[in-house]
Amino acid sequence: MDRKKRVFSGIQPTGIIHIGNYLGAIKRWIDLIPKYNCIFSIVDYHAITVMYDPKEFPNKILEAAKVLVASGIDPDKAILFVQSTVPEHTELQWILNSITPIGDLERMTQYKDKKQQNADNINAGLLTYPILMASDILLYKGEVVPVGEDQKQHLELTREIVRRFNKRFGDTFPEPQTLLGVAPRIKGLDGNAKMSKSLNNYIALVEEKDEIWNKLRVAVTDPARKRRTDPGNPDICNIFSFHKYFSSEEEIKKIDNGCRTAEIGCIDCKKILAENINRTITPIRERKRELDSRDNEIRDILYNGTEKAKSIAEKTMDEVRGKIGVKF
Ligand code: AMP
Ligand code: TRP
């Protein structure tokens, strides 16, 4: 029988979902829904590894759920739930903690980066973060995991955990496959680092039209192009790279040529981009605005997702407990 494969992915409720998250992951999630059994989680326990405001946190979780639904995650066709509402995630993590060498965790680039960014709060959760991520996926025996490039290394580690577990306790988990997004690594508006919430170099997925322009107006372009009359080089211009995801082929050709010949300036190029980003995200922003007054419906969607996720998670945990010898 041709069984639909299982997809799992997660996003942290850290406030803002930006166009990097959308192009790197969420757009791919939506494409997969018709062909796979999809489970998507708002991973709140991952987000508490950095400083956060517990009073604001419930709103952030709800906000993330609204943006996901507004983007096109249909809760009738995919499971959408909050990680902490299925306690089996942390239970499985404890077990996987015990088969994961610390050295493997210390090698993770994200851990090294976060250690630098959070020098006053280097907690054990930052180190074991990828084991919780492995637990998220394995609890549902996820086979395909759509993520941005920054998560590739964590998925390598997940596969190693699978191999180690299966070898020691018998075949239990499939090795999940990484599926990169449409744009696996979008740079921020500074043209330097990866677009991210913490660096404030993003355009939010529900950004207002004026705000898109305010942000693009000052965004970095080809650094060598100092004057309007200088020819530019689209190959190294960060703004040009955004056009590839939001503008038509015809527009891209025109801009490429116009920039190289100095026929058009950076401001003209940015105006076209602002228009096109706005056109793409307007339907999402409008659906999100409608959902803003429907908190209870969103909560129901999430509770419903919890029930469905829980029934799968409980089965896996029962099997795992048996395999590791803690079932009497
Ligand atoms: P996070 O917000 O860290 O939970 O990330 C959610 C998803 O978005 C993950 O699959 C990330 O890999 C992806 N992602 C985050 N930032 C970017 C970026 N700048 N470019 C592409 N994908 C990204
Ligand atoms: N660590 C991921 C990120 O920061 C989010 C995440 C948590 C995730 N659990 C996951 C992604 C499981 C895919 C599968 O982006």
Overall description:
Helices cover 54% and strands 7% of the residues. It has 328 residues and is mainly α. It has 2 domains: 6-187 and 295-324, Rossmann fold (3-Layer(aba) Sandwich); 209-289, Tyrosyl-Transfer RNA Synthetase (Orthogonal Bundle), CATH 1.10.240. The strands form 2 sheets. The protein has a 3-stranded parallel beta sheet with strand order 1-2-3. The two termini are 34 Å apart. Adenosine monophosphate binds at residues 11-12, 20-21, 24-25, 147-148, 150-151, 181, 183-186, 194-196.
Task: Describe the SSE topology.
Blueprint: E1 6-11, H1 19-32, E2 37-42, H2 44-47, H3 57-71, E3 79-82, H4 88-97, H5 102-106, H6 109-117, H7 124-139, E4 144-147, H8 152-169, E5 177-180, H9 209-217, H10 238-246, H11 249-260, H12 266-291, H13 295-324
Parallel strand pairs: 1-2, 2-3, 4-5
Helix pairs in contact: 3-12, 4-7, 4-13, 7-8, 9-12, 10-12
The structure holds adenosine monophosphate and tryptophan (TRP).
